[in-house]
Amino acid sequence: MWAASRSRLRDVSAAILMREKFGNGAPAAAVNVPVAAPPPELAELPPPVRRHTPLVERYGGDIAEFFRNVIPIVFGLALFVAVWAILAQNSALPGPVKTWHSAVDVFSDPFYRKGPNDQGIGWNILNSLQRVGIGFGLAAAIGIPLGFMIGRFRFLSGMTSPIVSLLRPVSPLAWLPIGLLVFKAANPAAIWVIFISSIWPMIINTAAGVREVPQDYLNVAKVLNLSEWKVFIKILFPAVLPYMLTGIRLAIGVAWLVIVAAEMLTGGVGIGFWVWDEWNNLNVEHIIIAIFTVGIVGLLLEQALMLLARRFEYR
């Protein structure tokens, strides 16, 4: 009985569903649903043409920056040469063209030897650089450690401050007679003048750098019970290095400036003696060549130290 009732209910439910779906038992009309047409086959496109970027677009910024830096230098040199040529027309000063021809002759054989006092300009430059290297090296070996100690210890700073303030303004050539008296020879006297002239910038700049180290760093070193050597290599040296390199750069400029004057007075082989010897021979073209040579060598030394300073710069 229950099975027959369940079967009858199933049939009634199916009939109601069919009526709602097809309406009064009529079969539903077929509905045409549009079907999207298959996409047409894409035609093969030609390979893209590789366009080379013009050099102006690729390097335009660098080229513009280059010309912005170079053009003022070129105009400055051109103006200098023009003024020199105008002045040379109304005086005994040799002009740029005549000086250029003499420079070609001088530098065509810069390392000749015809006697102890007759040598090429190359040997004179090397001898001057040797004296500068010895005097400057001795000044750095003494001046930089002394600057660290003066900046580190207040008592030593107060003790040396009047001495440095008194001796630093003295003209470098004023020390030459002292060197001749003590060393009894011209070459050590010239090295002595370079030493005493170039030591002051290194002492002053190094001591100033030590004083600029924040006190908090030194307090932390005391808390950690660091030795004086550890304080130097871990705290002082990295912080003072930019100041120290600035002092070295200033000192090398002073040393190269002084050697020319010192060699004029002491004689021997060197660029200063070469200038004085050419003046005695009334060869003004060679004097002008020596002036430019001294300037170029000094510029190269300064630029090399500036590159070194940027290499080891701490920020």
Structural commentary:
The protein is mostly helical. It has a domain at 122-311: Orthogonal Bundle (MetI-like fold). Helices cover 75% and strands 0% of the residues. The N and C termini lie far apart (100 Å). Residues 25-31 have low confidence and may be disordered.
Residue runs with pLDDT of under 50 for 5 or more positions: 25-31
End-to-end Cα distance, whole Å, is 100 Å
- Number of helical runs? 11
CATH superfamily of the domain at 122-311: MetI-like
If classified by CATH, what would the architecture of the domain at 122-311 be? Orthogonal Bundle
Top CATH class of the domain at 122-311:
Mainly Alpha
List how many beta strands DSSP finds.
Answer: 0
Shape: flat
Mean pLDDT figure: 81
Major pleated sheet:
none
What is shown here, in short?
The protein contains 11 helices and no strands.
Structure characteristics:
about 325 residues; mainly alpha; MetI-like fold; about 75% helix; about 0% strand; flat
SSE topology:
Elements: H1 2-22, H2 55-89, H3 96-108, H4 121-152, H5 154-167, H6 176-183, H7 186-211, H8 215-223, H9 228-266, H10 271-280, H11 284-311
